[in-house]
# Entry
Amino acid sequence: MSTGRREPENLEALRAERDRLSTVNDVLSDMVNAACDATARKGYRDDDAEQAKQAHWKEFKGPVLAEYFAARDAYHEAKWGSESAAKTREVIDQGFAHDPAMQELIAKARADLAIRHAAAKPVERDRRRSL
# Structure
């Protein structure tokens, strides 16, 4: 019987974070698309609930996407190394070169994620016995 290779714990956590944020982004996109469709079907009348969903999407689409990029970058770096991750970060940064607000969100998300993961690293214990 063979089992698949198991990722190191920190890599599993990074992958899980990346996947969670991808799902959140997908759900937000589905929600706003459904709200837009419903608004059109209603003839753009009596659509307060749909307008609220669209406002929610507008408020959170940037931060969620920025957190997803940060998580994806961290996973990519842990799995394939700094040089490879730098190339993907460069592509993302170039894609948002025209959007300083998004650049700021991505930089903040990267810094926040680095702080969270640095704090989560286990501390090496001194295994020597005290006499």
User: Anything to note?
Assistant: Residues 9-41 form the longest helix (33 residues).
